[in-house]
Amino acid sequence: MLSVALAFVFGYALTLRSVLAAGLALGAAVTVTLAADTASIATMEVVDNAVILAVPGAMAAGLSSALFWLTLAFSLAVAFVVTVPVNRFLIARGRGHAVVHQHHDHSAHDHSAHDHSAHDHSAQHPADH
Questions:
Q1: Residues 63-120: pLDDT tens digits?
Q2: For the purposes of burial, counting CB atoms within 10 Å of the CB of 18, is it exposed (0-12), middle (13-18) or buried (19 or more)?
Q3: 36 with 29: CB under 8 angstroms?
Q4: Using CA atoms, how far apart are residues 33 and 121, in angstroms rounded to an integer?
Q5: pTM for the full model?
Q6: What HEC string does 57-81 produce?
């Protein structure tokens, strides 16, 4: 189950990095990351592992075996197809990755960290003014 743990660690790390870059404090970034990725990663891992378990010989196949790589590719493809509707469902309800996108949208238009006193931005973001 090391692979499952690593999937969560790396999945969370990638999202956490981007959320921190958007300017969130660590505590808030962790909360957003957990909310955004847990259901997606869990779905992907359950489906991926179920498919691998269903293919005869896949669990015993070594790294040099075509069965290992073909099963891995197939299981990830199936998991992706199943996980996309889960993510769409969550995003449509303002959950999952929609939470992350809210923070990216705000950071893209946050001018408070920059000195723009010499520039006129009224034409660049008319909706913001």
A1: 999 999 999 999 999 999 999 999 899 888 888 766 676 665 544 444 444 444 444 4
A2: middle
A3: no
A4: 32
A5: 0.72
A6: CCCCCCCCCHHHHHHHHHHHHHHHH
> Count of CB atoms within 10 A of residue 26's CB?
10
Task: Report yes or no: 11 and 41 within 8 Å, Cβ to Cβ.
Answer: yes
Phi-psi map region of 57: left, alpha, beta (phi>0 left; psi -120 to 50 alpha): left
> Can you tell me the distance from the alpha carbon of 83 to that of 79, in angstroms, rounded to the nearest whole number?
6
Quick one: pLDDT at residue 124? 43
